[in-house]
Every structure is written in C-alpha cells, then in structure tokens.
Amino acid sequence: MAVRVAADVGGTFTDLYAVDDERGLRWAAKVPSTPEDPSLGIVRGLSRVLELSGLQPAQVSHFIHGTTVATNTVIQRKGAKTALLTTRGFRDVLEIGRQKRPHLYDISRDKVKPLVTRDLRFEVTERVLASGEVAVPLGEDDVRTAAQRLGGAGVQAVAVSFLHAYRFAQHELVAAEILRDLLPGVYVSCSSEVLPEFREYERTTTTVLNAYLGPVVSSYVERLKGRFREAGVRAPISIVQSSGGICSADVASRKPVYLLLSGPSAGVTGAAALAGAAGFRDVITFDMGGTSTDVALVVNG
C-alpha cells in the first residue's frame, strides 16, 4: 500500500492531505505552524495524518511540499550575508539595472537597496565575448584575493556572475571551485547554473537572490530530511516551484530562487485544476492565509 502526502505551510496553520489511490481514501490534518522551524509543524501534521489513517511511516510513498521559506526570507530581508564576484567593470550592475525608473520624473524616489552592499562586490579580471570566445583569461589570483577578503568579512554566501557566462561557463566554475576550497562552508552560486540566459542585470540579480537564499533554504531542507528519517519516513521529498511544477529537495537546495513563489503557485495550480474539472476555464483564485492573501487570474486554463 502506498500513500501520497502533501503539505502546505501557512503563517498560522500547516495543512496536510494524504491520498490512498488504491483504496480511494483521503485524510486531512491541520496543526499550528511553527515559524521558527516550519519542518517541525510538518512532522507534527504528518504524525496526525498517520494517526488518523492507521498507516505506518514507511507506507508514505511520496511527499510534496509548498513552502514560503524563500518568500518570507526575501520579504523580511533575513537571508545570508552575501557577496558578489563579477567581471571587471560590472561591479555596479545591481544598482544601474536597466536604467528604468518606475516614475520617470520623480527624482526623489528611492531605489531598492541591493542585497549585496558595494563593499562586498568584487571585480575579477576575465572577459568572455557574446560569441562565447574568451577574450581575457580568468585571473585566478583575483579570485583568491577576493576569497581572503570575504573570509575576513564573515560572508555566508557568494554569487558568481561573469559577463556572457551563459555562453562560456568555465570561468565561473573555476572561480566557484577556488571559493569553495578557500571558504569551506560558504554557499557559492554560479549564474551559469542558476539562470544561463543573456541580460546581465537579470542574471546577476537572480544569482544574488539564489545565494542570499541558499544557506536558509538548504538548512531548512536538511532539517526536514532529518526529521523524516527520525520519524521513519523514507519517501522522497518534492517541493513546489514558482512555476507550479515540482523539484527534488536537492535541486531546491541548489536553486532556492526557484521557490520564491512556491506557496502561492501551489494554490493557483490546484485551483486551476479544480476549476477546469468543473468546466470553468477563466477564474480568479483567492488564497487567504495567516500572513498574506494571494490572488491570481487564470485565463483559458
């Protein structure tokens, strides 16, 4: 007998739902959320579901989880102390952006503060052309010098975003290897792995967000895995992404930026499926939780 279990962690409650497809049975449980460690609320809810169903932990075949850990970390600015390693001349891309302003003639409007302060942005000698051809080889000594300074600054995560790395990733990968060697325990994120697409601002910002979230999300995932092992649950853990699809726990640890809208997207995906089954292709979804309310528009399914 195999049972699938889903969990939705909200600001007030954590909801779990178990499905036994073979027998057509369903069970639901609601327990108070544990904001200090959401994995604790999940395990308590899972214990409640198992108690209601009379099932054993080993009978859970799959576990899927919508989470707001990444969302809340960014909103509250409680992520890791993060640094940026970038191509010489691109230190300020996070602030320059695309030079667009939300209100063109409002000179008093403040810009959003970058997640990496300027003193933690380091330039490295290297240059890759848009074709992927190497114009200037990677200055590995620059990376080592930056690593020494980052170690003294107590940095917890480093984003590596070099010019045109989506065409030629080797410089980033070598720099990351040096950083991991000289800064053990520091989370390192490469743009060529997180978002291998052109446009420097978008790719750099996304990579910085990934690094900023990395230590928080990866430690949460490891705690959840550990609690499952202690509870005797051997099922693989899948986590909902912003797209509404799922990824493994390991992918979530490496690419936590993909989880920024995990919780809201799970509700929208479920509501769209339910509306479609009822014959409605155009709907507005309304998902009210203890922390926030999420509203989405579904057009033609």
Radius of gyration: 22 Å
Count of discrete alpha- or pi-helical segments spanning 4 or more residues: 9
Main beta-sheet strand count, sense and barrel state: 6 strands, mixed
Q: Count the E strands.
A: 14
Kindly estimate the percentage of residues that lie in beta strands according to DSSP.
Answer: 15-25%
The percent of residues in helical segments reads 25-40%
Helix-strand pattern, N to C?
A: EEEHEHEHEEEHEHEHHEEHHEE
Secondary structural class: alpha/beta
Oligomer: single chain
Strand order of the largest sheet: 3-2-1-4-11-12
Low-confidence stretches: none
Mean of residue pLDDT? 93
- How far the N terminus sits from the C terminus, by CA atoms, comes to 34 Å
Using the alpha-carbon principal axes, give the shape.
globular
Describe the structure.
- The chain is α/β, with parallel strands linked by helices and 301 residues long.
- Helices cover 37% and strands 24% of the residues.
- It contains 9 helices and 14 strands.
- A 6-stranded mixed sheet has the order 3-2-1-4-11-12.
- Strand 9, helix 5 and strand 10 form a beta-alpha-beta unit.
- Helix 1 packs across helix 7, helix 2 (69-75) crosses helix 7 and helix 4 packs across helix 5 (170-182).
- The longest helix is centred in the last third of the chain and has 32 residues, at 200-231.
